[in-house]
């Protein structure tokens, strides 16, 4: 939509170059891929962000202070590379700090986490008016308020033929309001894509050749709570696994309190569902979990972990851990370390707490010193390496189904791919010289290589 006289700009920008830079989560990455498709449809040519372009689009993150700082650095880099280009900034950082973004000289357009479907029109108007000198030097704030009337915004599906895995966004927003987190302010409340549309979109992806579809969202396990009628994530999965085609489904992050026995039973019984759950822990200390407004205890998490392993042999469980939360003393951290050390995680994502403006935790006393956060983070990262290696070693000697993604760039003469339980596997290309990319191949695991990567040999079905 135009900013002048309500005119819709009909855009055919044949040959104009647009470059994208994405910071943050899988949702942001999926949304950027969708926006690339929108721009290509209007004649734009997508180029590398390091190259000269007519338009630079930065999709931002606000989850940590470091992420916001990186956003500003990338914005300034784009402005410095081509001052005449249109620089558009969107995403979570834009949503919560629009005026801060606009204060950077050279930013032309700020869009938040909604209204992205009109980005091509907004950018095209900015290009025309910047060329004629009509565009305001300070740029335009096009961020929309995130009120209760907001609907799920559908963007085009990705269409990269080089990929075997696609992300399908089924939910947006979060109502949890963890005390450290800006996401509810940046994304608004929970909004779900109707189950019929999820089925339709997944079928399109499978028909396009994708063999793994990752169901993603901001609070994926809250799927359906806004739709009523008993719609929820397990019910959706029951419908999706019945669709025709050669594919598997992976879930993105699911909250501990929403991992039910019904969900675990589905993962245990459906070969189309990957044996992998990312279940954020954040802390292994009950006092800190309470201060974070996380709705579970360390003991409840431990029981859930063991139940998942009991019901789903070989499951990979990955997690997020936040160190240095306000008031986290050494005893609190030790409780977290001790809990994690007893649980055979596939991987840990360790983050250092940073105060985010407007969140309750930012105003809490007893902020933890940066050197203490650094030490605790390093300690958990070392533990993560040990746990990952131990998990990988369990599968030596087994034959596992691998979705072959590509010829390895790191190892000449090898194929590489991913198992359903999130292990990267390499096997010699001499065994399968062609025609295996995007196929499910049984591979006997022979050894664990560097970085917990498995090496094996393809076997006949």
TrEMBL record:
It catalyses: N(6)-L-threonylcarbamoyladenosine(37) in tRNA + (sulfur carrier)-SH + AH2 + 2 S-adenosyl-L-methionine = 2-methylsulfanyl-N(6)-L-threonylcarbamoyladenosine(37) in tRNA + (sulfur carrier)-H + 5'-deoxyadenosine + L-methionine + A + S-adenosyl-L-homocysteine + 2 H(+). GO terms for molecular function: 4 iron, 4 sulfur cluster binding; metal ion binding; tRNA (N(6)-L-threonylcarbamoyladenosine(37)-C(2))-methylthiotransferase activity. Residues 160-392 form the Radical SAM core domain. Residues 16-128 form the MTTase N-terminal domain. Signal peptide: none annotated. Keywords: 4Fe-4S, Cytoplasm, Iron, Iron-sulfur, Metal-binding, S-adenosyl-L-methionine, Transferase, tRNA processing. Pfam families: Radical_SAM, TRAM, UPF0004. This is Threonylcarbamoyladenosine tRNA methylthiotransferase MtaB. Belongs to the methylthiotransferase family. MtaB subfamily. The gene is yqeV. Its EC number is 2.8.4.5. SMART domains: Elp3. Residues 393-460 form the TRAM domain. Catalyzes the methylthiolation of N6-threonylcarbamoyladenosine (t(6)A), leading to the formation of 2-methylthio-N6-threonylcarbamoyladenosine (ms(2)t(6)A) at position 37 in tRNAs that read codons beginning with adenine. Transmembrane segments: none annotated. Its cofactor is [4Fe-4S] cluster.
């Amino acid at each position: 939509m135009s900013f002048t006289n309500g005119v819709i700009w009909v855009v055919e920008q044949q040959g104009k170059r647009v470059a994208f830079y994405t910071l943050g989560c899988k949702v942001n990455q999926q949304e950027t891929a969708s926006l690339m498709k929108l721009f290509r449809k209007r004649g734009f040519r997508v180029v590398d962000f390091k190259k000269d372009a007519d338009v630079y689009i930065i999709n931002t993150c606000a989850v940590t202070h470091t992420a916001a700082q990186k956003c500003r650095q990338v914005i300034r880099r784009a402005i410095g590379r081509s001052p005449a280009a249109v620089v558009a900034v969107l995403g979570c950082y834009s949503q919560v700090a629009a005026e801060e973004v606009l204060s950077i000289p050279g930013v032309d357009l700020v869009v938040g986490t909604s209204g992205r479907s009109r980005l091509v029109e907004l950018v095209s108007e900015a290009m025309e008016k910047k060329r004629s000198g009509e565009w305001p030097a300070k740029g335009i704030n096009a961020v929309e308020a995130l009120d209760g009337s907001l609907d799920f915004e559908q963007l085009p599906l990705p269409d990269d033929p080089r990929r075997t895995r696609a992300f399908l966004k089924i939910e947006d927003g979060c109502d949890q309001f963890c005390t450290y987190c800006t996401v509810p302010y940046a994304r608004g409340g929970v909004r779900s894509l109707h189950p019929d549309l999820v089925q339709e979109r997944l079928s399109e992806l499978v028909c396009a050749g994708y063999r793994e579809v990752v169901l993603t969202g901001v609070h994926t396990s809250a799927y359906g709570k806004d739709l009523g009628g008993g719609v929820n994530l397990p019910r959706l999965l029951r419908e999706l696994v019945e669709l025709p085609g050669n594919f598997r489904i992976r879930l993105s992050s699911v909250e501990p309190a929403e991992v039910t026995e019904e969900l675990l039973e589905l993962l245990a019984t459906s070969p189309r569902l990957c044996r992998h759950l990312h279940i954020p822990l954040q802390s292994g200390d009950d006092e800190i979990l309470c201060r974070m407004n996380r709705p579970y205890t360390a003991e409840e998490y431990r029981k859930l972990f063991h139940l998942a392993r009991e019901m789903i042999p070989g499951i990979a469980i990955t997690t997020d851990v936040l160190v240095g939360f306000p008031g986290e003393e050494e005893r609190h951290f030790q409780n977290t370390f001790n809990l994690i050390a007893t649980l055979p995680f596939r991987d840990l994502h360790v983050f250092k707490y940073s105060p985010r403006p407007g969140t309750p935790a930012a105003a809490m006393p007893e902020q933890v010193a940066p050197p203490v956060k650094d030490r605790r983070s390093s300690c958990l990262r070392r533990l993560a390496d040990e746990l990952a290696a131990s998990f990988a070693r369990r599968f030596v000697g087994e034959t596992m189904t691998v979705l072959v993604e590509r010829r390895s760039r790191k190892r000449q003469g090898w194929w590489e791919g991913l198992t359903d339980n999130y292990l990267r596997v390499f096997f010699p290309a001499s065994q399968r010289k062609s025609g295996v990319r995007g196929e499910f191949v049984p591979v006997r695991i022979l050894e664990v290589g560097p970085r917990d990567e498995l090496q094996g040999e393809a076997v006949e079905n």
